[in-house]
């Protein structure tokens, strides 16, 4: 009698896991990984592979911290191609860990006159000081002898801080 009960419990657990897997989203997986603090590798279509611990997931951005604790990478979630983890994860359908966009995070960085590298969909890399953040573009100043670069926000796939 006990063996039948155990088998039924295992089938129910497997069914629940299948239901959860069918409803899972990439944002839900990223949310769960941010809570686990596991080191992950995230491959993107345009900015390469990034390693670190997820610190949070916003409306359209994942925040990845360097495993040694210095430096952040802001990744546009629609540019994420795959996520590698040490072990399989049952993902959820949860939303962002914080209600913020990539543009809003850049506004925060602008206040600090942060040195950034902005990576665009065309795989361009623009390094300099973040000077302004408009409604749909950002300005990166590369120095006195270099022209400033205005980058459409929709073209930004990663920002390395």
General description of the model:
- The protein is of the alpha+beta class and 161 residues long.
- Helix content is 27%, strand content 37%.
- It has three helices and ten strands; from the N terminus they run ααβββββαβββββ.
- It has helices at 2-23, 26-36, 102-111, and strands at residues 39-44, 49-57, 61-65, 72-76, 80-84, 115-120, 125-133, 137-141, 149-152, 156-160.
- The chain has a ten-stranded antiparallel β-sheet.
- It is elongated.
- The termini are far apart.
Summarize the structure.
Helix content is 27%, strand content 37%. By secondary structure, the protein is α+β, with helices and mostly antiparallel strands.
Order of strands in the sheet with the most strands? 5-1-2-3-4-10-6-7-8-9
Helix content: 25-40%
- Radius of gyration computed on alpha carbons: 20 Å
Structure class = alpha+beta
Can you summarize the main beta sheet?
Answer: 10 strands, antiparallel
Pattern of helices and strands = HHEEEEEHEEEEE
Number of helices: 3
- Arithmetic mean pLDDT: 88
Unreliable segments of 5+ consecutive residues = none
**Beta-strand percent range:** 35-45%
Task: Write out key terms for the chains shown.
161 residues; alpha+beta; 10-stranded antiparallel β-sheet; 3 helices; 10 strands
């Amino acid at each position: 009698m006990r063996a039948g009960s155990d088998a039924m419990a295992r089938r129910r657990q497997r069914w629940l896991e299948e239901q959860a897997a069918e409803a899972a989203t990439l944002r839900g997986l990223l949310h769960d990984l941010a809570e686990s603090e596991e080191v992950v590798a995230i491959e993107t279509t345009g900015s390469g592979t990034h390693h670190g611990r997820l610190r949070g997931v916003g409306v359209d951005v994942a925040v990845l911290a360097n495993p040694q604790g210095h430096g952040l990478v802001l990744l546009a979630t629609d540019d994420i191609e795959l996520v590698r983890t040490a072990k399989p994860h049952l993902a959820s359908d949860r939303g962002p860990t914080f209600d913020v966009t990539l543009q809003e995070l850049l506004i925060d960085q602008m206040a600090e006159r942060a040195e950034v590298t902005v990576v665009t969909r065309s795989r361009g890399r623009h390094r300099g000081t973040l000077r302004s953040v408009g409604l749909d573009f950002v300005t990166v100043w590369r120095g006195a002898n270099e022209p400033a670069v205005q980058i459409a926000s929709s073209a930004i796939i990663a920002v390395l801080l």
